[in-house]
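Subject: Sanity check before I submit

Could someone independently write out the structure tokens for this chain? I want to compare against mine line by line before I put it in a report. The sequence has 115 residues.
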Amino acid sequence: MGERTDTGEPSPRCEPPERPPDARPIKAGDLLRLGRAASVQFCRPITVRVIREITDRHPYDGWAWIEAYELNGRGVAVAKRELFVRLAGLHRLDAGAGAGDGRRVRSAARQRVPA
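---
Independent answer below. Compare away.
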């Protein structure tokens, strides 16, 4: 038999958080600018490229855990991070935009060292 509340009614199911009606799902490759609206931890805004949304964690409604690469001003990945963000505060950037300066984001590539 299912769990019950103190009043004897069935407990609400643990459902994934609902997204705001106008929010697109977060997907791999999304380029996001995260500032104070996304979380108080971003007193200085950062730009990230999403690796994935971490769906096995159960955040508060309107929030999500994401795994992402933090990008520098040239659009190169400098750190891999797990971030707790408010969905309504995500600012999506165009795929062709750089870290706010209009330049194209490049993937970080290994430099070849001459033998």
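---
OP: Matches mine. For the report I'm noting this point. The first strand starts at residue 31 and ends at 34.
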